[in-house]
Amino acid sequence: MAAAGLGEAVRLVLARDLRLALRHWDQVIQPLIFFVIVTTLFPLAISPALEELRGIAPGVLWVAAMLSSLLALESLFRPDVEDGTMEQWVLSGQPLSVLLLAKTVTHWLLAGLPLVLMAPIVGTALGMPQSVWPVLAATLALGTGSLSVLGAIGAALTVSVRRGNVLLALLVLPLEMPVLIFGARAVDLAMQGEAVAGPLNLLAALLLLFVSLGPFAMSAAMRISVET
Amino acid sequence: MSSSSRSPLSDSQPNPRRSAASSEARPRVASRWLWFHKLGSPPYAYGLATKLRPWLMWSSLILMLIGAYGGLVLAPPDYQQKDAFRIIYVHVPAAIMSLQVYLAMAIAAAVGIIWRMKLAHAFAAACAPVGAWFTVAALATGSIYGKPMWGTWWEWDPRITSVLIQLFLYLGYMALRASFDDTQRADRASAVLAIVGVVNVPIVKYSVVWWNSLHQGPTISKLDTPSITLSMGWPLYTLVLAFMVYFAAVMCDRLRSEILKRERNASWLQENIARS
User: Fold this and answer.
1) Which of B:197-236 have CB within 8 Å of A?
2) How far from the centroid of its chain's Cα atoms is residue B231's Cα?
3) Choosing a second label site near A83 at 20 to 30 A (CA), which of A54, A206, B183, B263?
4) CA distance A4 to chain B (A)
């Protein structure tokens, strides 16, 4: 693998992770089912009246998306660290940050993208008008990317900790709060018929910031976690 | 190859002279950074903290007494808030420290991870609980302040919310640190988190301000620092300084106990204890 170029290595990582995911597709859709279940809890807990649900729908969808993105993080790096693949990557001579970013991209493809596609349907069930669909999908597409990167940093930090999943949530959720604010607010603004370019631009800026700086934090964290 | 390269060194005279010259030159180059390297040495830092501690503790106590007297007795009651405003003399310094300590912690963590300076990690480890308590104090006093002023213990005001998120960052940092058995690993992993967190702090601040300004505009002005008159202001500035010196004094203690914990098997420490 060291002989191959970086592009080839990234392609191999992506292909391998996607193939592994397709073979365990029942595990892959679990976060998606979780997303639907969490959004179902709110009508049960608050009120079945659509007028009331409409007001909280953006927040509900975004919080559920954050939690289900978190759920998939636990298994992002752990199998590779446990079976020694990650050590091989550290030693491979390829930049670890790029390889980990490729893994993060697969996390987004498997845990972020399904949410983007699913959210409009769930949103409609919560009384969202169809006109909001594009904005909802756009905020989730930009926002879940940031969530994946921040989550991957947390996952790399906690991968060697036993029972690290609660810790992971503790570390990652405060860092993700700005994404939640901009994402939910943009959908809220769209539902009130106001301009949404501001929060969407900010979400895109956050995504660029996290994608450009995040991989370095990921690889630093992973090196600490892998070395024994 | 190795013998041929070694032979001119072993039999020629200039070699010792050259090494003497370089050892003469080296301290001059290093002297600019000597204080930095000295700080990295546990015995030196331990001694320094021991020496500084009483000075810092007493001066912070004196500053606090002056500030408290000025704030609670000399400063006139606010024309609108009456005596209730006096809680700012605790609230504002605590809130300032909650951010300052986080910055200090992140800088120490970065120094520790870049120059692999163990003592910087010890400093960062010692910072976290102190900073978390300053944050708790800021939230608690803010809540007590809010009850008579706004009629509510809690308000989702941008500053309050961002201080709360700050507390979450401290708690996450301490939780991560506590979950490793190996100190070195805990040091480096939590350092990465502290650096990631410090990048996020301004984003949190601005996002929360922006989030709030859409929903409840007028609340922002509630907490905006009003232009403060000198008679009310000087005790506040004195107390901010007092809190900073107090932080330094507490850090001397905490750093010493961190060093004791980390260097418990070191010979200098045993000699030190044997002497005293």
Assistant:
1) 197, 199-200, 203-204, 207-208, 210-211, 214
2) 29
3) B183
4) 30
Q: Which residues contact B16 (CB under 8 A, 6 or more apart)?
A: none
pLDDT tens per residue across span A50-60: 888 888 888 89
pTM (two decimals): 0.83
Domain hosting A34: range is 6-226
CB nearest to A171's CB, from B172, B203, B204: B172
- Partner residue facing A224 (CB), from B189, B210, B214: B189
Q: Residue A201 in 3-state DSSP? A: helix
- Is residue A183, in this structure, part of any structural domain at all? yes
**C-beta pairs of B41-47 under 8 Å, 24+ apart in sequence:** B41/B119, B42/B118, B42/B119, B42/B259, B42/B262, B42/B263, B42/B266, B42/B268, B43/B268, B43/B269, B43/B272, B45/B119, B45/B255, B45/B259, B46/B256, B46/B259, B46/B269, B46/B272
Q: Do residues B74 and B231 touch, judged by C-beta distance below 8 A? A: yes
| Number of domains chain A is built from | 1
Q: Is residue A95 part of a domain?
A: yes
Q: Which residue has the tokens 């963590």?
A: B109
Token code pair at residue B245: 């010196």
In a domain, A167, yes or no: yes
Q: Is residue A1 part of a domain?
A: no
**Taking CB atoms and an 8 Å cutoff, what residues of chain A touch B112?**
none
Task: Give the residues of chain B that fall short of pLDDT 70.
Answer: 1-31, 78-81, 212-230
CB contact under 8 A, B196 and A175: yes
